[in-house]
Amino acid sequence: MKPLLPSLLLTGLLVAGWVIGSRPPVVAPAVPVPSAAAAPGRPLPVTAGPPANPTVSAQAAPRATTEVELARALRSGVESDRNRAFHVLLPALVARDPAMAGHLALAWEPGALRDELLRQFIRQWAAADIGGVITWITSLLDESDRRNASLAATAQVAEDDVAGAVELAQLLHVGLDDGSLERRVQIWTEEKPGEALAWIARRPADAVRDRLLARIAWTRAQREPAEAAGLVLSYMSPGEARDDALLAVVRQWAVRDPAPATDWVAQFPAGALHARALAELATAAKLR
Amino acid sequence: MNPSNPPVPRRALLALIVMLLPLAARAQMAAGKDKFVGNIINSSVPASFNTYWNQVTPENGTKWGSVEATRNVMNWTDADRAYNHAKTNGFKFKLHTLVWGSQYPSWITGLSSTEARAEVEEWINQAAARYPDVWAVDVVNEPIQTPMPASLKAGLGGDGTTGWDWVITSFQLARAKFPNAKLFINEYGTETNATARNQLIGIITLLKERNLIDGIGIQAHAFNLDNMTAAQMTTCLDAYAATGLDLYITELDIRGPLATEASQSSKYQELFPVMWTHPAVKGITLWGYIVGQTWLANTGILNSDGTERAALTWLKGYVSGVSVPAVPAAPSGLAATAASSSQISLTWTDNATNETAYKVEQAASASGPWTEITGSLAAGSTSYTVTGLSASTTYFFRVRASSTTGGDSGYSAAASATTSAAVVTPPPSQPSGGGGGGGGGGAPSLWFIALLALTALCRLRSWRG
Fold first, then answer.
1. Which of A85, B185, B202, B313 is geometrically suited to a Cys-Cys bond with A73, CB 3.0 to 4.6 A?
2. Do A17 and B451 lie within an 8 Å CB cutoff?
């Protein structure tokens, strides 16, 4: 039996080796091990925490400070202070308490700074809450303030919503007769003619639509006169405004491409409009 | 002499240097150049204005409708602010504008042509009286693109025999009242529209024949420039330069075709040098620069927190003569294809010429959050295989080029792919029969073979014994 002992031992080792070798490899667990800092029962590091009463200390105190700082910065006469007032302090106050910012603007002594404060306040508030702004503006008693605020609100809305700005201008009765509305629609047509055309086609017919349509047609006539002509004929009702719009298209078309413009004018019924259109063709010939 | 106390002249020199240091640090990008790079001022002067710009145009302050919103009541507040800032700092000041078919006083439309003529003359007289030494005046703004109120146009002579009598009259009035100022005509849309450009050149010829015009203003707004090429810009400038007049880029703003920071910077780098180096161009004015305070959205080049967008950093370096490495062009055409249940292959087009690496980012949704997964791939890479993914899962990817000197490009458009379902493979069959061999079908380890050999050796010895 003695010679068999090593063989038995070695066989045992073999079996043990077989078992160990056939175990699956150890892999990293799928779920990450929680870090020591987040381990339950371990105290978090001590940091400078919020004050005991954050409602009072974090809101009321800074608000008062902002108002005082804003007034001080506006009065300092230093350009950088004024800049900080309009671009840092006023936005902070408007975000926290727009009514207070409005009160501050209205309470300021009359003058250019008051007008500017009112404009800036309205623009910043309008960017966040146009509904609140409209309600506030309609409550203003002073005509000049209402106009100043309305123009600022309209300008702010126009930054990314021309159609909204036009509606707002009409609602607030500002910028209707100084070319501003037409200008907004003109640039919109330059940038996104499809949007502008679709919008004007949806608007109810009235004098304002005719003015804006005439400007869209003017702008489109620079590049697409046939389209502009169709726009005027399709959407403007007969009258002086339509005649003026048609003549503007005639001139621009004739400058760009006289033959089709002349053909088009030849289809006009005889009369005053036809005569004026012929005059436009003659003027256009000088401009080419 | 006390060595810690420098003599008076040295102390004075030191004081002078200390005083001048901040000025030097904030010198405008075009300071000392023979051309200016200016900007607009509206109702307040940005604190950073003098850091960058050395010419002033009021954004609205010197428009007729701003000054005389109420008939015969002149409000020069904003105009004075811009003018005083220019004068205080020695910057050129341009009055913008005397005659324009927009932002005119609303009351003008109710007047007869005779009354309108009297009012416009009064307006020009008052502007000249208040600012007699302005450097330049935009006499007529947008004669081609923006129609005039009928009464005002008629009051100034209407079309007349030339077709542009009202423009000529406007310049005659301006020349009489601003004898020392350069008189400009200013227009947009002629950058890409040759018909409009030829019309404007027709007007310019009429004015030039009468010695009424000194310069041409090319507005260069984003809606004309964003999709314009450098060659088109050269064509435009050459056409105007042929008139022999000085050219000014008067209202420059750029978003870039994609309206991203990288796209904006790239378009600036494409077009600005064409304008700046053209011999007829004598100055460039940007129409606003602070994000959120520009008339066209997304045209700002200085963030509201005071940090510069890539376009401004490049512009500053370019104009001041400091070489600024170009940002590499963004890759395009990214395509993602599932290669297996755990791999997705990506391919893209390399548009950059100066990149030093490519970086791939991965996300679980199109809106991110994005995680960079590659580290840096070699320059010129156009493909990558993402591994270790889960089966039947959609992944989103985007790629950008990177330069060690020029920074990162914009991202490619994102692409997505879904890995295929996992293939369920049967477990390996158990080894048949007895005997040795590795468990689970694996190869036996060396020590196992050694033990086997040792066992065999022992058995052999026992047989011999």
1. A85
2. yes
One-letter identity of residue A96: R
ipTM score assigned to the predicted complex: 0.71
Alpha carbon of residue B464 to chain centroid? 95
**8 Å CB contact between A257 and A225:** yes
Nearest Cβ partner for A21 among B44, B150, B438: B438
- Strand runs labelled E in chain A: none
Annotate A23-64 with DSSP letters as a single string.
SPPP---SSPPPPGGGSTTPPPPP-----S-HHIIIIIHHHH
DSSP state of B291: T
C-alpha distance from B372 to closest chain A C-alpha (Å): 20
Residue A52 touches partner B, C-beta closer than 8 Å:
no
> Quick check: B4 pLDDT over 50?
no
What DSSP character marks residue A86? I
Determine whether the interchain pair B458/A3 forms a contact, defined as Cβ–Cβ distance below 8 Å.
yes
Which two structure tokens, joined as six digits, stand for B83?
A: 């003018």
- Say if B46 is an interface residue toward chain A (CB within 8 Å): yes
Strands (E), A89-211: none
How far apart (Å, rounded) are the C-alpha atoms in residues B59 and A116? Answer: 15
Q: Do B43 and A116 touch (CB under 8 A)?
A: yes
The pTM (predicted TM-score) of the whole model is: 0.70
Structural tokens at position B393: 């899962």
Q: Is A30 on the interface with B (CB under 8 A)?
A: no
DSSP B124-165: HHHHHHH-TT-SEEEEEE-TTTSPPPHHHHHHTT-STTTS-H
Q: Which residue has the tokens 């991965």?
A: B362
Predicted confidence band at B192 (pLDDT cuts at 50, 70, 90)?
A: very high
Closest Cα of chain A to B23: distance in Å?
A: 16
**Which backbone phi and psi does B183 adopt, to 5 degrees?**
-105, 125
Question: DSSP secondary-structure letter at B306?
Answer: S
Give every residue of chain A whose pLDDT is below 50, as ranges: 1-3, 14-15, 17-60
Q: Which of B204, B105, B199, B185 is nearest to B152 (CA)?
A: B105
- Joined tokens for residue B139: 């006499």
Is residue B15's pLDDT more than 60?
Answer: no
Q: Does A17 touch chain B (CB under 8 A)?
A: yes
3-state secondary structure of B297: coil
Taking CA–CA distances from B43, the nearest residue in chain A reads A116
B/e letters for B430-462, b = 16+ CB within 10 Å, e = fewer, are eeeeeeeeebeeeebeeebeebbeebeebeeee
Task: Please name the member of B145, B162, B195 whose beta carbon is closest to the beta carbon of A256.
Answer: B195
3-state SS, residue B70: strand
Per the structure block, which two tokens stand in for A146?
């209402």
A254: exposed, middle or buried (Cβ count in 10 Å: 0-12, 13-18, 19+): buried
**Could you tell me if B143 lies within 8 Å of chain A, comparing CB atoms?**
no
Distances (CA, A) of A220 to A197, B145, B149, B199, B357: 10, 10, 19, 16, 46
Q: Are the C-beta atoms of residues A285 and A254 closer than 8 Å to each other?
A: yes
